[in-house]
Structure formats: C-alpha cells, structure tokens
Design a protein that fits this description.
The structure is a single chain. The chain is mainly alpha-helical and about 200 residues long. It folds into two domains: about 1-45; about 45-200, no CATH class. The protein is about 50% helix and about 10% strand. The chain is built from seven helices and five strands. It has helices spanning about 1-40, 40-45, 105-120, 145-150, 155-160, 165-175, 190-200, and strands at about 50, 55-60, 145, 175, 185-190. The strands form two sheets. A three-stranded antiparallel β-sheet has the order 3-5-4. α5 crosses α6 and α6 (about 165-175) runs antiparallel to α7 (about 190-200).
C-alpha cells in the first residue's frame, strides 16, 4: 500500500512540475522576452522591415529578387545574388543548394548564370564576380559585394537615363564596411540601394 501511495504522490508531483514549467517556459517567458524585445529593439523584433511611403517593401535582413514573373532580371534595378531558398528568397525555406563543388548541376547553373550576367551587363564573363553566380548558404542574403554593385552601375544608369557618376556615387555611399572594422567583407544591401535609387530618380 505504501508503495502505491508513494507512486501516486510522485506522479502528482511530476504532473504539477510539468504544469508549472509549461506555464513558466511556454507562456510567461516567451511573453516576457517578446515584451522586452518590443521595448528595447522594436525595429529588429518586428523583422527589421523597410517601409516606403507607408508601405512595407521588404526587410533589411532578407533579400529579394528584382525580376519579372518569368524570372528575367529587370534591368532598371540592381540585381541580387542567386538564391536557392524555395523559389528564391523564401524565408520559410532557408537553404543553400547543397550541391558539392564537383556536382554537374551546380557547374551548369553557374555557367548559365555567368552567361546571363555577362550579357545583362555587357561585359566579358571574366569581369563577373563570384557572388553573381553562387547562392549564399542561407539563400536569404540581402547583400552583394561592392564589386557586383559597381558592375551594374552603367546598365542601371542607362535604363533610368541617369548620370553614371551619380549612380556610382550612390553605390559607394551604400557600401557597408566590415563589422567593427575587422569581421566579414564590405557589402551592399540591394533593397536599400534600390530604394535610394528611387529617390535619385525622382
């Protein structure tokens, strides 16, 4: 009998512990962290969204494609790097291509992108930087290299009938340096650059 009572007591303690922990860790803690996030870092907590004229056009943290419904590059915009996340920059399917460097499918994709980028920019294929040809490991990288942004200046300026000098200056002003001056490489956020391009074009 004592063994049965002990087991029942232990079961009761376990059930109460699960209930308390579920309440504390499944409800109170998430609500507290969400509340602190909204107060301390509201912009970041809400996805680092970018708005133009009161409308959300994207996020600082997630890239997007500037293409038509058929996937062809819209020449009046600076282009992002390729994406292997779903149909491209799908936040619910973050992933690289997972293809090894000797995979023939990856080699074929790079060759296709190289040809398309060189034709779009009107340059020799050797001038096309690597980030125009390969996707990031997340498939969501919103940045390109300054070299890739500079390569696109003449095409964007011509499409928008802008002075290439002004567009080039816009690119240089959009270059983000290494974090702390040490970590990573200089980058350009494509969405922010295209928003600044709109302001230059008006």
């Amino acid at each position: 009998m004592s063994t049965a009572r002990t087991s029942a007591r232990q079961l009761g303690v376990a059930v109460r512990a699960v209930g308390v922990l579920t309440l504390a860790l499944g409800l109170v803690y998430p609500l507290a962290v969400t509340g602190v996030g909204q107060v301390v870092a509201n912009h970041q907590a809400n996805g680092s969204e970018i708005t133009v004229n009161g409308q959300t056009v994207g996020s600082v943290l997630i890239g997007q494609s500037f293409t038509d419904e058929n996937g062809a590059a819209l020449p009046q915009w600076f282009q992002s790097r390729p994406s292997a996340a779903g149909d491209g920059y799908d936040g619910g399917a973050s992933s690289g291509s997972n293809l090894g460097p000797t995979n023939p499918d990856l080699a074929a994709a790079i060759d296709e992108r190289l040809t398309a980028a060189a034709e779009l920019e009107g340059v020799d294929p050797e001038q096309v930087p690597a980030d125009a040809l390969t996707a990031s490991s997340s498939g969501l990288d919103p940045h390109i290299s300054p070299e890739y942004a500079r390569l696109q200046v003449d095409r964007v300026a011509a499409e928008r009938e802008l002075d290439p000098v002004d567009v080039r200056a816009l690119v240089e002003s959009a270059v983000e340096g290494r974090r702390g001056g040490v970590l990573g490489e200089p980058t350009v956020n494509v969405l922010q650059l295209n928003i600044a391009l709109l302001e230059l074009d008006t």
